[in-house]
Amino acid sequence: MDENILNPDDLLGNKLISEEDDDEFHHLNNPVLGLKPIVKKYLGTVTDVKEVGNKFFFTDSEARVEVTVVTDEIIRVRLAPHGVFLEEFSYAVPKQEQKVSVFSLHEDELEYRVSTSTVNCHIRKIDFFISFSDTQNHITNQDAVPMHWEENTQFGGYYVFGTKVCNTDEAFYGLGDKASDLNLRGRRFKNWNTDAYSFGWNQDPLYRSIPFYISLNEGIAHGIFFDNTFKATFDFGAEDRTKTSFWADGGELQYYYIHGPHMMDVVKSYHLLTGTHPMPPLWALGYHQCRWSYYPESKVMSVAKGFRKNQIPCDGIYLDIDYMDGYRCFTWNRKYFPDPKKMIKELAADGFKTVVIIDPGIRVDDNYSVFKEGKEKRYFCRRSDDYFMEGHVWPGRCQFPDFTNPEVRAWWGGLFDELVQLGVAGVWNDMNEPAVFGAGTFPDDVRHQYDGFRGSHRKAHNVYGMQMVRATYEGLRKLMKNKRPFTITRAGYSGLQRYASVWTGDNVASWEHLRLGNIQCQRLSMSGVPFCGTDIGGFSGEPDGELFTRWIQFGAFSPFMRAHSAGDTKEREPWSFGEPYTTINRKFIELRYRLLPYLYSTFWEHHRYGFPILRPVVLQEQDILANQARQDEFTYGDKILVCPVMEPGQTSRPVYLPKGQWYNFWTNEIADGGVEVMVPTPLETIPVFIKAGAVLPEYPVMQYVGEKEIDEVKLNVYYSNHEVNSFLFEDYGETFAYEQDIYLEKKFIVSGKDTLLTIEQTMEGLYTPRYENYHFKIIGLPFKPSKIIIDGKTVGDFVLTEEKCYEFKFSKNFKHIEILK
Ligand code: GLC
């Protein structure tokens, strides 16, 4: 193994030091001061290889590198500087199943090559450079410097580094909720979960750590998932435009190379590793109303009544920290809420689900049962000297459960029993970065059980929030028997999607934040966090009616739709701004409910196949260079293109339509894609386009999910002269029966010609919906139909509507429809 003493240029080139460390760096290399320079170690020449199953172990005689074939597209690389690997354990990748059958190892004079049917991993003998190529021998990813590390007792640091070549036109996406442009190129980011109240554009780090990025170079995509929970840094050609680096302040250099070639393939493969979101209860896809805080009970009830009075649909109402007794989790302030059970029952009778906040800080108070029990059982985190870790949060002096301990998670999960008995349907986990007033977070030396793999807070910090919401989700799942719990978390790490939805934290009521929220949601979606949304209207500050309405319009197409605001702001319900805003807000929230079956089906597509719900344009058309800079428009599922309005007073805006044909949702006009079009943006609408050939399922407007028994589904069929597939997923909407195949996946194939439109339907699954009634609306039919034949029966009753669409009904499940000229 080589031991290189770095010169300052190397050090900067490899970005070993952060800007804050600059002074120290100069000291360190100052011969006058006589301090020893940093000693940084690199892999040397490969001397041997061993093959064990799907793993290959390469060594330079001291360090070892493990190359694991995970799937045909995924290869994992790990480094053990002294030849001994850490035990296999990851909160992000629950089980690593090998899903590959054929792979091989080749050796020639210069290199070893591990190959699957789609990817080669090259290990260059002379210097241990690792690179990846596709079957056309196109290099997609290569080391710029061999894997390296630093064990510095003088500075007290241990770092592991991967440094890759950054190509001239390479673009980078992913990393979760970063508040920057969609393409991350030219920037450096830190992963360290942080309570970032009123964060600003380019502020970093934020609440979550998702160490996964997607690279797009010359039209070919690959992903890197650096599964290391320590504080990590990613540099996408920021300090040196020829290098992409990622490094962590501890742990193992372990990354997964995920081959594309399409960005969507990378996203799907990332889900294969880290899992997908379980199906949410259908009501959770409705509109949610939150505020810090609605209290007392009469206020909660009057807000709820306001929705029904104004006929604005709403499914979820939230209780923020003031519902508790002195902010003690799992207690109630009986002055404000004398009879929570009665209140929750009344809310439920009116169609509202109650969601309550639960924070990790447990008040130090010997008269408080949760604290007493946690203390007795030693469930709270401790410092290195064995004293309990204490910090101030809302309740005052607090201690904090160690959620990385499975026993603590089980205990925590059980604490929700009373809330579930009271009828609470969802739980909101906040402040779980973990946030501590003054100190920011826990000291580094806090100890964590880490599922038996013990570690300090340096290792556990980024997963703390995820393990908290995991404990919450798993507890609720048990307590709610077969009902799907709804959970939402502020902090998280890769894989959090298996347990919760997220919101982007404490944003601001500004147009800039609306723009930022749009990018953050798109970015979260492509980073494996599908169920995401922003605080509609902005958490702090005051939106005017226009900003709030524009945000509602964006929110109607966010996977998670919740308005929330800080306590010192004015009222913020959808009717608070008067007309014309109330009417427009209602129209968009109603649209959300009309399209619920579409969103629910898109969720299924995520859950089952790993597709994101929001899809940036570049994710769909990566071969078009200009798309790398497009970050305003996105598709919601794959059939609806949305471009929110993010400027005040805007009356029209350009929108890029991806290739193919698109119908303007508001006018039904058809337009060719592959170009930018100007679209009018009066306050009443935002640009929404539907892909030609789509079948958009629609439910009647309901004030809440379950208000009406669905006895008919409307199928909006958008004519296309190409064959296009759509689908509709249906099930009970609130149980886990879908895990036993009790669901129905209806697939529609639309295909049009000059004189004929056909719609085929196939079905999979064991669920039987209550209805068999279909209401068809055919949009854009280029001919006047003479006949409609459904499974051999002629339908006589079809009408041409004012919108120039043909509508007809059919009361039986169908297989084949022909609409003839
Ligand atoms: C944090 C949360 C915010 C919540 C507040 C009070 O700031 O991000 O959503 O309302 O705490 O609980």
TrEMBL record:
Pfam families: DUF5110 (PF17137), Gal_mutarotas_2 (PF13802), Glyco_hydro_31_2nd (PF01055), Glyco_hydro_31_3rd (PF21365). Residues 610-696 form the Glycosyl hydrolase family 31 C-terminal domain. Residues 713-780 form the DUF5110 domain. Belongs to the glycosyl hydrolase 31 family. Residues 65-235 form the Glycoside hydrolase family 31 N-terminal domain. SUPFAM superfamilies: (Trans)glycosidases, Galactose mutarotase-like, Glycosyl hydrolase domain. It comes from the Bacteria. The keyword Transmembrane does not apply. The keyword Hydrolase applies. Keywords: Glycosidase, Hydrolase. This is Alpha-glucosidase 2. Transmembrane segments: none annotated. It comes from Mucilaginibacter polytrichastri. Residues 278-601 form the Glycoside hydrolase family 31 TIM barrel domain. GO terms for molecular function: carbohydrate binding; hydrolase activity, hydrolyzing O-glycosyl compounds. GO terms for biological process: carbohydrate metabolic process.
